[in-house]
Design brief:
Helix content is 35%, strand content 20%. It is α/β, with parallel strands linked by helices. The chain has a 6-stranded mixed sheet.
Length: 305
């Protein structure tokens, strides 16, 4: 499989989140048991080859990695400009691991990895932190997905009496959250005073504590405070309306745990092709309308144009 590199980017330095798949996506590197990685002999070979990258090239700083059954995640940071680009270092790592795997198995034709690799470039410390948390949570996310596959599967053309008609709804999570008796739309406007914002946030969190399920886009600063506060309330449930399609949506960290525990439903009324960034604020306003309609069980009504 071919993955295109970013045109014009200097791969001799930078911060990267890389993914390499086994060929042909064989579960041969590890097992996930109780959310923890248990390496196979081939997985141990991959770890040794990965660590050798830094031993051979001190300009490389190897951060966290995750040896999953059929793929490998890692965070690679260049301390300084390297003589060779990222691809050269990755190819060397793959070749070393493949040779060791062939020696171990006695199969001179063994193809351990796919022919290329996928990379995400981090242009900020926040994004690097997000990638790091994604790698760290990969094993437990794998476990949850395999224990609760239905909650992590996309459901297309979702229909429900509460959902506005004429919209192609896509969902990830427990769809039964649409059946709860009390849905509360979360809308905290940006143009209010700090005191008003704090009062609104406190009101929504009190409702969540009382058993209400909150629904909204959680985009404005106040709405983000509500979403953050919900995480500290045991059993609090949320329906999140995305202003984009679900094509690029990949939950990680606490979001995965909440999906597995039936505490979150992610909904999108937009085509898969609508990107997550930059945020489409017209879609955010439309989500506010939909949140009101869904909370009011107004499935036969239409949102304002």
């Amino acid at each position: 499989m071919h993955y295109a590199r970013m045109i014009g980017h200097d791969y001799h330095g930078g911060y990267y989140f890389i993914t390499i798949n086994t060929a042909p996506r064989r579960n041969c590197l590890s097992q996930i048991i109780d959310g923890k990685v248990v390496l196979t002999p081939l997985g141990e070979i991959v770890v040794k080859a990965y660590l050798k990258m830094a031993a051979d090239s001190p300009e490389i700083d190897l951060r966290v990695c995750a040896i999953m059954p059929d793929h490998f995640h890692a965070i690679i940071v260049f301390r300084r400009r390297s003589e060779h680009p990222l691809g050269w270092h990755v190819r060397r790592f793959k070749a070393r691991a493949t040779k060791a795997a062939r020696d171990l198995t006695g199969d001179a034709q063994l193809g351990l990895f796919e022919g290329n690799f996928h990379d995400f470039i981090s242009f900020s410390s926040d994004r690097l932190d997000n990638y790091t948390q994604y790698v760290k949570s990969n094993p437990i996310r794998w476990q949850w997905k395999h224990d609760h596959p239905d909650f992590f599967r996309k459901h297309f053309a979702l229909q429900h009496p509460r959902l506005p008609r004429g919209i192609f709804w896509t969902a990830i999570g427990d769809r039964s959250l649409l059946d709860v008796p009390q849905l509360v739309p979360v809308i905290v406007h940006r143009r209010i005073t700090e005191a008003e914002r704090k009062a609104e946030v406190a009101r929504y969190l009190d409702l969540a504590r009382s058993g209400a399920t909150l629904i909204g886009g959680f985009i404005s600063p106040g709405e983000k405070e509500v979403a953050k506060g919900v995480l500290e309330i045991p059993g609090a449930k949320v329906i999140c309306l995305l202003p984009s399609g679900l094509k690029g949506y990949k939950p990680h960290g606490v979001a995965v745990k909440r999906l597995a525990e039936s505490l979150t439903l992610v909904l999108s009324g937009f085509p898969e092709s609508v990107p997550a960034t930059p945020i489409n604020y017209e879609n955010c306003h439309l989500n506010n309308d939909w949140a009101r309609l869904i909370a009011g069980a107004g499935g036969d009504k239409s949102p304002r144009s």
